[in-house]
Design a protein that fits this description.
It holds the Pfam family wnt. The chain folds into two domains: 200 residues, no CATH class; 70 residues, 2-Layer Sandwich (Endo-n-acetylneuraminidase fold). 35% of the residues lie in helices and 19% in strands. Bound molecules: 2-acetamido-2-deoxy-beta-D-glucopyranose (2 copies).
């Protein structure tokens, strides 16, 4: 559904498909196009899961991971270098590494299996490495080959993207969980063997969302990549920042407002959440964030839903249900009818 014109490399997996025609043998750990074919469906599935996670994590933010934001490469169109771009790179890169690693553990690839390199060694107080650890080393190496290859430039943007790709991979590694099994007389657990497992991908997404809020802005002069000295300065700057952190070069635009040039829809018409369901703090404040703080009113829309309910089983053999009507109230941002004086929107927090 995301496929655009084949000649434009917009989303990571269309980039991947496109690269298959131009890929050279040397780019590979293994042997060229054959290796490419083995991993490409997994890479594409991983990029897709990164995009889905982005949409989940930003569902109640002013910027909600719109398709336009997902162009990852230098091919085609406008490239931004803000905090949101940073997140898109990190989550896509994480998705690809995660999926390759999971595929490996499931035995989907002939040349890869559990990471048992440390098995038998002492891991810590009272436990030994053992069992089947997810092979993140494999996922990391292969995903790097695919995702980082999309950055061909030598400017600050390319350096930023590579840094954030790495941050995504670090997030996968950093959220892995130690799982242990007890040994000893009747489960006395005198010794344990432990292995490392991937978390749910949701956890990687949540971790990167925190990194997004804490992203660091790097100040680099325009055109710094045009000379050898400038490229050196870029490399030094990025090297001084931990690859666990997301970095960006530009400030974000005002996502309250529609801006066709930037492909932004603004928040008018967006749904937000109020009471009712068990909402987290971030969701509970969504109406203020999306509507109120953007100078928009919250419009209540009531609707009725009809569904089957109170179903009873009659001997034998029929099920009879009643039709229940349920009122649902939804909230949307809309342009205020009577703008109140002086309460224009405040830019600032996203
Ligand atoms: C890897 O996993 C993804 C998602 O779980 C799946 O769609 C894909 O087919 C798998 N790849 C291989 C080579 O089995
Ligand atoms: C859209 O964004 C661009 C770049 O930030 C800006 O120059 C332009 O004024 C904006 N347009 C509108 C209609 O806000």
């Amino acid at each position: 559904m995301f496929l655009m014109e084949p000649s434009v490399c917009i989303f990571l997996f269309t980039c991947v498909l496109q690269l298959s025609h131009t890929w050279s043998v040397n780019n590979f750990l293994m042997t060229g196009p054959k290796a490419y074919l083995i991993y490409s469906s997994s890479v594409a599935a991983g990029a897709q899961s990164g995009i889905e996670e982005c949409k989940y994590q930003f569902a109640w933010d002013r910027w909600n991971c719109p398709e336009r934001a997902l162009q990852l490469s230098s091919h085609g169109g406008l490239r931004s270098a803000n905090r949101e771009t940073a997140f898109v790179h990190a989550i896509s890169s994480a998705g690809v590494m995660y999926t390759l690693t999971r595929n490996c553990s499931l035995g989907d690839f002939d040349n890869c299996g559990c990471d048992d390199s440390r098995n038998g060694q002492l891991g810590g107080q009272g436990w030994l490495w053992g069992g089947c650890s997810d092979n993140v080393g494999f996922g990391e190496a292969i995903s790097k080959q695919f995702v980082d290859a999309l950055e061909t430039g030598q400017d600050a943007r390319a350096a930023m993207n590579l840094h954030n790709n790495e941050a995504g991979r670090k997030a996968v590694k950093g959220t892995m969980k130690r799982t242990c099994k007890c040994h000893g007389v009747s489960g006395s657990c005198t010794t344990q063997t432990c292995w490392l497992q991937l978390p749910e991908f949701r956890e990687v997404g949540a971790h990167l969302k925190e990194k997004y809020h804490a992203a660091l802005k790097v100040d680099l002069l325009q055109g710094a990549g045009n000379s050898a000295a400038g490229r050196g300065a870029i490399a030094d700057t990025f090297r001084s920042i931990s690859t666990r952190e997301l970095v960006h070069l530009e400030d974000s635009p005002d996502y309250c407002l529609e801006n066709k040039t930037l492909g932004l829809l603004g928040t008018e018409g967006r749904e937000c959440l109020r009471r009712g369901r068990a909402l987290g703090r971030w969701e509970r404040r969504s109406c203020r964030r999306l509507c109120g703080d953007c100078g928009l009113a919250v419009e209540e829309r009531r609707a009725e839903t009809v569904s089957s309910c109170n179903c009873k089983f009659h001997w034998c053999c029929a099920v009879r249900c009643e039709q229940c009507r349920r009122r649902v109230t939804k909230y949307f941002c809309s342009r205020a009818d009577r703008p109140r004086g002086g309460t224009a929107h405040k830019p600032g927090r996203k």
